[in-house]
Design brief:
Layout lengths: L8 E2 L1 H8 L3 H17 L4 E2 L1 H12 L1
Helix pairs in contact: 1-3, 2-3
Length: 59
């Protein structure tokens, strides 16, 4: 069960960018971004967070 501190908040611009990702990989992109953010103590996901996670997992 998630507590309030475990919930990731996606900022509107990041959500718009996420929706540009093809649906068949969008879930994985979202999970990876949230994992990346959680590991760094980030609770609000911005476009920058999304791009940083993408770069991190592309290695």
């Amino acid at each position: 069960m998630e507590t309030g501190s475990d919930v990731m908040v996606w900022l509107a611009d990041a959500e718009r960018e996420l929706k540009k990702i093809p649906f068949f990989v969008r879930g994985k992109a979202k999970r990876n971004t949230e994992k990346f953010a959680a590991e760094r103590g980030v609770t609000q996901i911005s476009v920058d967070t999304l791009y940083e996670a993408k770069a991190h997992y592309a290695r």
